[in-house]
Amino acid sequence: MTKPLPSPTANHTPGRTPRAETAAAACFVIILLVLLLAGRSNLLRDPGTFWHTVVGERILQTADFPTTDEFTFTHFDERWIAQQWLAECAMAALYRIGGLDTLLLASAAVIALVFTGLFRRLIQAGLAWPAAALILALTLAAASYHFHARPHLMTLVFSATLYAMLCNVDRGRSRPIRLVLLIPLFIVWSNCHGGALGGLATLMLAATGWSIVALIAPAATILDRVARACSPCEPTSPQRSGTNSPANDASPMENSPPLPHRRDSDQQNGAPPDSARVARACSPCEPTSPQRSGTNSSANDASPMENSPPLPHGRGSDQQNGAPSDSARVARACSPCEPTAPKTNQPSPGHAVAIVWAITLPCLATPLINPYGLDLPRVWTSLMRSDALPRIIVEHAPPAPDSPEFWTIGALLAVYLVSLLAVPRNAWRVTHLLPAAWAILAYSRVRHGPIFAVMTPIALAELLPLARRTPRWLWRDHVPPQTAADTPTMHAPARTARFAPFLAALPVLLALGLHALDVRAPLLGTGWARLNPRYWPVESLAPLREALAEQPDRPNVFNDMRYGGFIIRYAPEARVFIDDRCELFADAGLRDYVDLMRNPARIEPILEKHHVRLALVRRDSSFDRWFASRTDWHGRHANDTAVVYERPKTLAPPPPSP
User: Fold this and answer.
1) Are strands 614-618 and 556-559 parallel, antiparallel or unpaired?
2) At what angle do helices 430-442 and 404-421 cross, to 10 degrees?
């Protein structure tokens, strides 16, 4: 059974240690430099990088939000909204500083920041840095296929932040009221990327799980705690021996010290027998107990347990006045060492769940806080309901069994499941199970894989310290936290190693300065970002623009879908046939495009209808073969990547009549 929300305690406050901060700073710099080196062109392989930046520039220039399409000739002036406008404006601002170099730097820095946070959390959980680095490397491998300079990177940031906050509340490290920070988080997230819908689903799952646990757990929990706490045969409590164990994460009753065994020396000194000590320990600690005040009453002849008031059901007026919950009262009453423990104002599990729902419901309304109102969530739901996207767009399809991401996600899933099953079931928490839901989604649509990936290290940081047995090499100094008194689940705050954040920020600030001054340098300087000419029609751009200059007004260009964003960015004087804005073309348009690739002969009516004289298509594609077979089209430029086709004016169809 999963556990209810505990009360926050000082021992569970996450913080910093010098070792963790220094290792995290080094991790950030290493990941940043590796991404800049390996992602020089690989992070720029998505056409969305280009048109997202153009849309952001339009918004910054006009101070207005687009509501119609202006880039295609097939859907020109039709309804379309910039659903990721906030991230697009940020991309445009970065592009103004240093072009693609700054976009590459920002993307690498965001990814490095996310994975540094994951590494830091593993270190704080007590893992040795080689073990944390190994988990991080597997996580990077499982998510790297989706690393692109696009707004969806913000979903990785916010997904990791959301899950970490939920885990902190679930383990009692922070109060449920801290989740109020999710309201501004979801407002920003909703205006950056549609992945906010997945974040809301995660929050709903957590809130629902906590509600179910709060409903079914109290009765069984109270009876179990009374039986264990009042037993005189309990072994020494881990809290008394100074060790740290999974029990520390349970409620106070589970950690209360046991009643001592009967000792002859006690009875020789006049101490009461075990039965009397058990009865007195289980008394509800009334401040004027007859035994303590020395008064005589008929109640003294009965067992103290018989005279103690019954445990109330639900939340009464005492809880409304700040009194502790049932389990906390039992814990205080049955503790022989603290008969007069002070009252606390910690919320009961039911009260904590009420706070969570009071925050969750406003979060569900945050997608409406945007320039487009209801249109934004409508776009999200239309994309999620689409049955054409998984068949046409790779990132919306399930991972192929022969793809690397299929196996890297599977390896990470195996590590997560082994760690989960190594934890006793009575120590499971609601947040421990959330990555399982995202693992299922990852194998339904490959774009969900990175979200599962960034959640898994956070889950491992929660699960591994609770596991029954773990290899010693996982832990710092080869000492698991269950047997090391100085290795809590999350370390206490420290004021040292303040230089670490500045060390991590140094290469980013240096690179921004080089970009602003237009200084060329490897990795950090201008000119490092590079479009792969084998993937993008870089060499075909100049011939295309020359042909466009010969055409009147704003000519139409037939293009491959991959090249739509490229033309929008680098040949803005043209209108394209298609790009990867799936919400604009909808299922019908996407199916029609797939049918065109299979039956290129259908292109002719489209070309005549829209007076198309230019085409930019991939080399050796079905479109390329069709244009090459036509006598009224000739190749203006060709290379191993793309071909520019042109129809001479004498053979071109007449322009459409007004």
Assistant:
1) parallel
2) 160
Tell whether the model's pLDDT for residue 339 goes beyond 90: no
What is the pLDDT, as a whole number, of residue 74? Answer: 96
DSSP assigned state of 616: E
pTM over cut 0.85: no
The answer to whether 103 and 442 are in contact (CB under 8 A) is no
Q: Where are the alpha helices (DSSP H) in 387-486?
A: 389-392, 404-421, 430-442, 449-463
- 284 near 329, Cβ under 8 Å? yes
In this structure, the strands spanning 575-576 and 556-559 are: parallel
Rounded Cα gap, residues 192 and 208, in angstroms: 26
Residue with tokens 């206490």: 492
Q: Answer yes or no: are the C-beta atoms of 147 and 160 closer than 8 Å.
A: no
Strands 634-638 and 642-646: antiparallel
Q: What is the CA radius of gyration of the chain?
A: 32
Tens digits of residue pLDDT in 3-42: 666 654 444 434 445 567 788 899 999 999 999 999 999 9
Comparing 44-53, 69-78, 462-471, the range with the smallest average pLDDT is: 462-471
Of the candidates 616, 596, 597, 594, the one whose C-alpha atom is nearest the C-alpha of residue 605 is 596
For residue 465, what is the DSSP state? Answer: G
Q: Three-state DSSP class for 234? A: coil
Distance, CA of 211 to chain centre? 22
Euclidean distance between CA atoms 224 and 249, whole angstroms? 16
Query: CA 587, CA 591: separation in Å to the nearest integer?
Result: 6
CA 201 to chain centre: 12
- Using DSSP's 3-state secondary structure scheme, residue 324 falls into coil
Backbone phi, psi, residue 187, to 5°: -65, -45
- Pairwise CA distance, residues 386 & 391, whole Å: 10
pLDDT, tens digit (0-9, with 9 covering 90-100), for 95-142: 999 999 999 999 999 999 999 999 999 999 999 999 999 999 999 999
